[in-house]
Design a protein that fits this description.
Residues 1-19 form the signal peptide. Keywords: Signal. By secondary structure, the chain is mostly helical. The protein has one domain (2-9, 49-150). 59% of the residues lie in helices and 0% in strands. The chain has helices at residues 2-10, 25-42, 52-66, 69-72, 80-91, 101-112, 123-129, 136-150. Helix 2 runs parallel beside helix 8 (136-150). The longest helix has 18 residues, at 25-42. The termini are far apart.
Length: 155
Amino acid sequence: MRLLILAFSLCALFLSVSSFPLDDEPIAELSKPLRDKFQKGICGQGIKPGGQADVDWVKDNILSYYLSKEWLTKDPPKGWNGEIDKIIKKCHKDTYNYCDQGDRDKVKDCVKGMAGSLMYCPILDKTVGNWETSGDKEQAFQLMSDYCKTKGKTC
């Protein structure tokens, strides 16, 4: 579950995992600047992420990056793609606007009950610990900027 939470945290948390009360202090620390950029750069410009095209973009561009052997330095959990699809099918609605706290809360509550089958990957502790020096922070911000470009905006 921590793997899923980190992946969504790193991608501005379009599926509202940013609303999770993260217990793991390093993950909570790294997610704050991402949430801030999400709120100011995306929501602050009137972008309303939430449609299926947005979810597909996150899955294709962000989750595939962070849930890869290259980033994790080991194979990702078996079946993660299917688990993500199940979560999206049950918890996402195209009418949601992930800039809206109420919509994020609805998805958060749904995801909490479903993400347990994705196993924690021990490499995350090392990866999160190198967040500032590894280029991961810049990569996450670049992915947000890339998303904004799909909406004709600059973040």
